[in-house]
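Page 37, continued from 36.
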């Protein structure tokens, strides 16, 4: 039985995870792949590891479940759902800080890794999550942190890609594949923006910023799109609230405000 690495050297995945080799559940697993895998000698991989070393300070005795003084909220959803707009609005509303992933230090390598095989591409994005996550931990003592995409996106797109290319079934809810990494800071809340596909695709076309291979697949490949949404919804370990993003901007943000009320009163 083929298994995934939950952490380096520790095989704990079940048979239902067979084939999902581009979903990483620990920093050790990502680093082991980059340092020891078939692309270890690639110059861009060496640059990526150097960037990680320069931008990932050692943690001072904290773990990913440590309590913090301010809320950590992540917006998720397909391209064109309105994440960027609502991240900006909520950051202003809470007088918080916005953190993005991949972080700026990794952006010069993004185009290169987007063209690589799935396992290498997802290792790049996974490493970005850990660098961004460490930055989040330092900010939470003084500010609310709002993020546009995090581990949900990295895992959901990886799973959908393997469902499509590997002729695999999307694992059922509760499968270990969907478990949040134990060594990655957890959001207090994930807000998943839902939007009818015709409206989403229209928004995306008008938005004009990027048109990556993933974005193109979302437009024309129903299996890929539905598998991505299904994986998003099955991620376990952090609370997720769906937001109806089909309304006008003010109505959508009213839903966002209502969703975070419990966090603000704790």
């Amino acid at each position: 039985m083929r298994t995934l690495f939950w952490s380096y050297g520790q095989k704990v995945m079940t048979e239902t995870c067979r084939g999902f080799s581009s979903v990483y559940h620990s920093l050790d697993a990502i680093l082991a792949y980059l340092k020891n895998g078939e692309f270890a000698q690639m110059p861009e991989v060496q640059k990526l590891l150097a960037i990680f070393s320069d931008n990932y300070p050692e943690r001072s005795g904290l773990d990913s479940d440590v309590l913090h003084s301010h809320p950590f909220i992540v917006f998720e959803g397909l391209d064109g759902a309105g994440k960027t707009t609502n991240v900006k609005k909520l950051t202003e509303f809470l007088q918080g800080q916005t953190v993005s992933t991949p972080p700026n230090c990794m952006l010069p390598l993004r185009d290169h890794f987007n063209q690589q095989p799935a396992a290498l591409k997802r290792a790049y994005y996974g490493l970005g999550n850990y660098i961004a996550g460490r930055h989040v931990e330092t900010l939470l003592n003084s500010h609310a942190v709002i993020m546009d995409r995090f581990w949900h996106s990295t895992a959901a797109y990886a799973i959908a890609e393997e469902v499509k290319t590997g002729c695999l079934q999307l694992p059922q809810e509760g499968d270990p594949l969907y478990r949040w990494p134990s060594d990655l800071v957890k959001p207090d809340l994930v807000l998943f923006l839902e939007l009818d596909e015709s409206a989403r695709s229209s928004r995306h076309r008008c938005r004009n910023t990027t048109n990556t291979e993933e974005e193109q697949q979302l437009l024309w490949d129903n299996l890929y799109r539905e598998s991505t949404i299904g994986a998003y919804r099955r991620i376990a370990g952090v609370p997720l609230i769906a937001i109806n993003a089909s309304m006008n901007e003010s109505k959508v943000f009213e839903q966002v405000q209502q969703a975070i009320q419990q966090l603000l009163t704790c």
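Residues 90 and 245 are 15 Å apart (CA to CA). Flag for discussion at group meeting. The mean pLDDT is 85.
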